[in-house]
């Protein structure tokens, strides 16, 4: 069964999450602050991280950023009482895979957990597992990306977005398709989150991100990938 790390400074919330996840059959490990959480993330093999944002000292955004900079590719679901769009966008830009706002139902959380784990475990379909996309050679099966300078760190979500676009290369993919098929977000989440994510992804792929040649914007609709 999957190992899930729970990082939250609210004792009742953390214990409730741990108890319910264990009841569902998941293995768990926990931390009650950001510093201890980052140590847990970098030292414990895991399949998913539930990470609270609003923690004293090192908050969840800081933990997420530090983990991704350290090369950690474990999927992260951010938990927070903040629901403003800017917080969702920031979480995505820092490498989070999903975002759920407190208070949430246990049923909703478990559905998100299962969806993220399912995407993480999904193997690529037929055809080659590698692709040359702009500056990067991407191995979707190994979740590895390299450039002429060496290995490039991509989050799990960045791999999944690239895979989705690659499988539909030269086709226009709408923002709603990305939100529904890759993020599994609710319909009321603004598609501006996708735009900010793509801007960051272009910085790793394009020779000139301000004039992209590979991930093109189709105005009013979404994006198109050209190899």
Backbone shape = globular
Order of helices and strands: EHEHEHEHEHEEEEHEHHEE
Low-confidence blocks of residues: 123-127
Largest sheet, if any? Answer: 5 strands, parallel
Strand order of the largest sheet: 2-1-3-4-5
Q: Do you know the CATH architecture of the largest domain?
A: 3-Layer(aba) Sandwich
- CATH names the topology of the largest domain as Rossmann fold
Structural class: alpha/beta
Task: Find the count of extended strands (DSSP E, 2+ residues).
Answer: 12
The number of distinct helices, counting runs of at least 4 residues, comes to 8
Distance between the termini: 37 Å
Mean model confidence by pLDDT? 87
Q: Which range best describes the helical content: under 10%, 10-25%, 25-40%, 40-55%, 55-70% or over 70%?
A: 40-55%
Radius of gyration: 17 Å
The number of distinct structural domains comes to 2
- CATH homologous superfamily label of the largest domain: Response regulator
SS strand fraction: 15-25%
CATH class of the largest domain: Alpha Beta
